[in-house]
Design a protein that fits this description.
The protein has 120 residues and is mostly helical. It is built from 3 helices and 2 strands, in the order H-E-E-H-H. It is elongated. Keywords: Membrane, Transmembrane, Transmembrane helix.
Length: 120
Amino acid sequence: MLSLFSLIANTGDGLPNVTYSQVNLGFAIPSFDLVLTFIIRLFFVVAGLIALIYLLLGALGWITSGGNKESVDKAREKIQAALVGIILIFVVLAIVGVVENMLGIGLGITKNIVFPQLIK
């Protein structure tokens, strides 16, 4: 009766000599700089979507306020906060984009992040 251990060749030092074939995943694992670039861009997309949703909630609050002064003020504050958020997102994107293009470095907005390498 053959056991699994008798089928594995022994190297003489007590450790089995196991061979395996290369596994094809079907995709390439991205590098850390590409993942970080994706995360930074995703952050700005999500922030923009949250600001738009907050703007819509403020507009809905204004519509459903029924003329109540306190509800209208709360809705106006939501709309103002959402607009300030959207403006800040665009300002940050513009400043980082200009800095990237002036200095020729990648910070993740208009160009991919590139980490310096000691060995190529």
